[in-house]
Design goal:
The chain is mainly α. Helices cover about 80% and strands about 0% of the residues. Helix 2 packs antiparallel against helix 3, helix 3 packs antiparallel against helix 4 and helix 7 runs antiparallel to helix 8. The relative contact order is 0.07.
Length: about 170
């Protein structure tokens, strides 16, 4: 219900500030989190038309496309890759697209490509559980066990911190 309340709040924000790319991205993310995937797709596509140079729209829509791929829509992988790459073409300082592209590379079996993306995401400030877990999996595939163990330890530390905060 909190997700639906967030959708309502962001819809109001878009109404009050229709020229705000942040409000539109927030609406799309809230719709995604509330399970309103079809509406989120429409929101992001509308945002891309209205704010074509806004990297955060491309990043957020790319993340949604990755989720669609993970839930069985095979064609979403290439769409996600293109969207995330276009976000980076606009703003190369974004860490999230690198993480998502690394996850897609790992899914394809490209451990070297995934490792490079994860390293870039980390260098840009991403330091969360999912990064370290995926990076550990990647390093295991590359037969770099000691480094994988180090990232698994970081994963455990980040997870414990999140759980303690809750």
């Amino acid at each position: 219900q909190q997700n639906l309340a967030a959708v309502g709040a962001y819809q109001r924000a878009v109404t009050l500030s229709p020229d705000s790319p942040e409000a539109n991205v927030g609406l799309g993310i809230a719709q995604t989190n509330a399970g309103l995937t079809a509406k989120a797709v429409v929101t992001f596509q509308d945002g891309l038309r209205r704010f074509p140079r806004d990297a955060t729209h491309r990043q957020a829509y790319g993340v949604l496309l990755v989720k669609l791929f993970e839930t069985g829509k095979a064609s979403a992988a290439s769409e996600a890759t293109a969207m995330l790459e276009s976000a980076l073409a606009i703003d190369s300082s974004l860490a999230e697209p690198h993480y998502q592209l690394g996850a897609l590379a790992l899914e394809r079996g490209d451990a070297h490509g995934a490792e490079a993306r994860f390293a870039t995401a980390a260098s840009l400030g991403l330091d969360d559980t999912r990064l370290h877990y995926a990076w550990a999996r990647t390093l295991r595939r590359l037969d770099r066990a000691a480094e994988a163990d180090a990232h698994l330890q970081l994963f455990r530390l980040r997870k414990a911190a999140v759980e303690a905060a809750q």
